[in-house]
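Q: Two folds, back to back.
A: First:
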Amino acid sequence: MAQNLAVSALKLVFLGSDPIALPLLEWLAGEGRAWAEVAAVFTQPDRPAGRGQLVAPNAIKQWAQSHHLRVFQPEKLTHEVRLQLVDLQADVALVMAYGHLLGNDCIATPRLGILNLHTSRLPRYRGASPIQTAVACGESCTAVSLMRIVRQLDAGPVADLELVPIAARDTAAVVEAKLALACVPLLARTLPRLAAGTLNFTEQDHAAATFCRKLTKEDGHLDFALPAPTLAARINGLYPWPACSVEINGQPVKLGCAEASGHDAGDPDDPARTPGVVCGTDAVALRIGTGQGLLRVHRLQRSGGRMLPAAEFLRGFPVAPGTRLASRPMTTLLGLAPFRR
């Protein structure tokens, strides 16, 4: 009979700057302590945030302070930072949405290397906006992948991944929350194997890689000559930032959630056959014609206001049937090679 041998908990350093990592950190502080104990946290320096642009600690730093952990906030990853990693004597480092690129000297410092949680089904959607771009491209499924960090962009070998479905009306914000929770079962499977020395990594199929980039406000343009499913995916993928927007009655309006539906193609005067023309409302959505099918927008926001359900928005900001919304060319979000910075 095989003998069960106790495996000591790994000493772990966490590097991250985004609230997406909070569920996994809470798990590490609780049940996950059997497999890994967080020794310190590296995160971005305090920066101005919000409308008042007040300098405040990010959510990761606040979590670390609430758990009485050492916090490091280097502006750049210098040789001094590597010496700090050496001094911590960590078995492994775990990265998620940190915001710094790691050099070879840092990567080689922990005994078991540095692992990264990347929010895509690698090798697809390597790069800066995997969640938003996957939703905006109409994917029905994504994942969070645990990989070894290498110098090439998100190209390291993968140990395991946790699949996450994308529903028809899921925005990037909804999918991000799902991915945040998906990190917990993924780490619950992999950290025990890492501690026992039985976690295997498989090289990615680099020929199948696709790449996404940092998003800009210009990515929020919409071309209503395109099919409704394409437009709905773009709207959902870019919410909450940079958000798709249109001009209605001379005012900019952000679109927060949408879906595609068919319409009666037999009527040549059907407004839904005219791209960019508002053809009315129903109980829950503003309906807009496209190049193929009908676009139903469920949430809208005027400048200076809140994002509201369509029915509530339209009570204070009526949009008459026949209103024409201008189209603007839509940028490319996905490529077969890394985008130039």
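A: Second:
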Amino acid sequence: MNKLLKIKLKFNPEPGPSGGGVRNLRSERIVDIEKVSQLILDLKKVKIYYASRQTLIKGCLIDVYYDDVIAKSNRVQQVLKGVKKPDDSIVGARFSDAPMGHANHIITHYVEFGAIDETINKLEFIITLLNERLSGEANKENFNINKDDDNPISFKGYKEYSDLEIRGIIVDCSVIEKFDVPQIQIFKSTESVLITFYKTELKTSEILDKIYKNEYHRYYTYGENSLLVEPNVFERLSEEIPYLISMAVSDISCLSPMKKMDDIHKDILEIPSPQNEPTIGVIDTVFNKNVYFSEWVDYRETLFDYERSGIKDEDYYHGTAISSILVDGHTLNPELDDGCGRFRVRHFGVCGDRISPSLLIKKITSIVDSNPDIHVWNLSLGTEQEVSKNFISFDA
């Protein structure tokens, strides 16, 4: 195989410019006493929720519901500011359940309880300021500052917070819809369940230890924050610590079926032998070695005996089609010829028509680790089930 060309550059990291200038209200947003009062009520409900149960974590997981798909520069900067800056306390992000095109961001933070108390104090102060300085509401006329203003609006004179902090709190309030406690959608499963937890000071194994104490339950860890557990364990975890669970999916995936390719190779009988073409790694369903281009494919099966016994003829279609495109795509689809020619393929057959995501991850890890000479990989396994729009799949 041809050696991979590498370009080596010397990077000299430099800090970005400090500060962001004066923050103004966006669009037609208004911050009034009623809105700020509701945000305070939300925060107090979050405190009550955690106070009413024996929590496992030292801090507080809290969702910030934005009123839009928010840009990073417009996220909260003063609200939830504690030991960490708000951006540094983010542990999750998803979209609301609104129809497509109307969804808003929901960003999850892990903060100390002191940050909640301090935010409540800030918001109570803002109510006082709105009453005293802005006739009950902040809007673009009485709040925003233009570059050409000779007498810019100022909120100096309060000892509690600086002018910039006050402006930051009000702008933060303008983009927040509400605060809430993260809650996983509970579902019944007859299969094992893959659970991903929000990142806190707890290790995943410690979570089960604290819930079950001296009881033993079998589980498998995946990465830093994910566990594979039995359905009854997931049911208990979702009841006792729903706020800690970021994502949960049943540990079985039925792959999208593919129609039989009866005539795809009908008129193609010859192909030259491979020479020094680069090799692409393919991780897919099993491969049919009785095809005209099989000399170009180094097929390696990674099935266990119980998986192999369930393989059907149609299970070979998808993986074989993927490798055919990489090897001889320009012949099969001349209208899509990109001029790159043919590629050799090292094809790893990992399944038939279904596979456990946790098992797939194990196979991918083993395959990639043991084939360091492969620099380009193709993974195009797709399931029939649509993943929740609130998170990517466990496999991804």
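Q: And?
A: The first helix runs from residue 33 to 51.
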